[in-house]
Write a structure and sequence with these properties.
Oxidized Rhodanese, domain 1; 4 helices; alpha/beta; five-stranded parallel beta sheet
Length: about 100
């Protein structure tokens, strides 16, 4: 079962300067409105084809708009042996800084 992490915990870790591996699985038009600056954008439909970009030796935090798609991505990756957390509530619940994806 995939573990969750609260958006405020992600924000606090980033504000403390911790290095986090965040993967945003939203679509292009969604991340264009703003994403966590430290996040890597891999749309949900591309995750399977881009596994080589995700380090199995590190923990990853999956993010989407509300937590549903990132939960699916997290479950998929967990089943493949990855160490993942799902950011509960997604970007709708995240109050930290964001930047538009260029």
């Amino acid at each position: 079962m995939v573990k969750d992490i609260q958006p405020k915990d992600v924000q606090e870790k980033l504000e403390k300067g911790e290095t986090l591996n965040i993967i945003d699985v939203r679509e292009d038009e969604e991340v264009a409105e703003g994403m966590i600056p430290e996040a890597k954008h891999i749309p949900l439909g591309d995750v399977e084809d881009r596994l080589d970009e995700i380090d199995k030796g590190q923990e990853h935090i999956m993010v989407c708009r509300s937590g549903g798609r990132s939960g699916k991505a997290a479950k998929y990756l967990e089943d493949k042996g990855y160490n993942v957390l799902n950011m509960e509530g997604g970007m709708l619940a995240y109050e930290g800084g964001t930047k538009p994806k260029l």
